[in-house]
Amino acid sequence: MRAHRPSLPIAPVLSRASFSGPQGRHAAARPPSVLDAGQVRMVTSGRVAIALALRQMGLQPGDEVLVPAYHSPSMVPPVLWCGATPVFYRVGADASVDLDDVAAKLGPATRALMVTNYFGFPQALQTIRAFCDARGLQLLEDCAHCFFGQYRGKPVGSWGDYAIASSMKFFPTYEGGALVSARHRLDAIVLQPGGLGFEAKAALATLENSFAHGRLPVVRALLRLPLGLKDMAWRALKARHNAGAGASIKTSLAPASSDSGFDFEPRWVDKRSAWFSRVIMKLASTRRICTLRRRHYLVLEDATRGLPGCRPLFPTLPEGVVPWQFPLLLDDPESIFERLHAAGVPLVRFAHARWPGVDAATCANGAMLAQRVIAFPCHQELNPDELAWMADQLQQALLAQAVAA
Q1: Of 44, 107, 65, 398, nearest to 256 (Cα)?
Q2: Burial 93-115 (b: 16+ CB within 10 A, else e)
Q3: Residues 115/333, Cβ–Cβ less than 8 Å
Q4: Using one digit for the tens of pLDDT, what is the confidence trace for 241-257?
Q5: What is the per-residue pLDDT across 257-275, written as a single tens digit (0 to 9) for each?
Q6: Cα diameter, the chain
Q7: Can you list the domains of the chain with their CATH numbers?
Q8: Strand 110-116 to strand 64-68: parallel, antiparallel, or no bridges (unpaired)?
Q9: How far apart are CA 390 and CA 393, in angstroms?
Q10: What angle do CA 79, 182, 64 make, to 5 degrees?
Q11: Is 375 within 8 Å of 282 (Cβ atoms)?
Q12: Nearest to residue 86, comparing CAs of 97, 96, 73?
């Protein structure tokens, strides 16, 4: 077993893994996805989908949107873009929505409640839906972590007035998001193509990310010359501009990733996802994606069972849940993070960076989760050796920390 794997992919990368059939005779049936919840518009990122949802809700300057204090900062700029004000509500120690605090924060300007299905695990959506209906509140169901799955027999995304998703967290694509509504028509949303530069960027970046992690070696060999020429042309173009202009050229080709960040580019709000990304989603075996994500999650859960200083954020993996990551609650997160990061293990610290001013005074549980939860990839593109190596590194780090303590 390798001692160091710095190229382990933190997110799905293009390979045959997403396109083969389900493994084994007992592979689970594919749970429904957010795309089964209602009418769909495929856009370039989850944050763009949030902006479209809020626009469809009729948000105006002076309105308020309730946002979880445990959040990605990318959730906030679309609220500000609409002229509305984000109001942050508390979550429980298990990341559940604190409806008592939501009720306390309702005011005459409150128009919408944003609820996140963290790490692929749905919230108590039936209760939240009833809460919103009783108060005339619009519900935005954030399925950025929860592309597949169901709750109470309905696909994730079905419970909100609108739902958003981030397809690039579940499919091996460079970009992609979705706006879905089970309650409202989306006919008024007419998306435009992003342009040839965007289409080329989406395809090439997907391939190059795959090559960087050792996938598709034959394709990489075949594209070695054209990709080399592309790199030469890009370097020549940047050389004719100063650093600032070079940055604007890059931004003009494609929007920022839908991963956590503070930036927002309004000109991409009415652009549709790239053709290459949409084709990958259509060809991918969603049954295999769901089966392997659940299987990999359980491998990591088993690897940490009984070890000191940690426990899974969620005690079980219910049927129908398709996880984004494996979130682990740690007693000493900084020490474990340093050990694993140094070993090359890919890690996610969701909400470690939050919107300015959102701290323990706003929500003690949100601050605790942001500090103590470290998440590990369990996506379908991890091969058995990579998964075993990551589980072994995690076990070693936890045991070493226990000895040191």
Answers
A1: 44
A2: eebebbbebbeebeeeebbbbbb
A3: no
A4: 545 554 455 456 677 65
A5: 556 677 888 999 999 999 9
A6: 62
A7: 16-27+285-404 (3.90.1150.10), 34-181 (3.40.640.10)
A8: parallel
A9: 5
A10: 20
A11: no
A12: 73
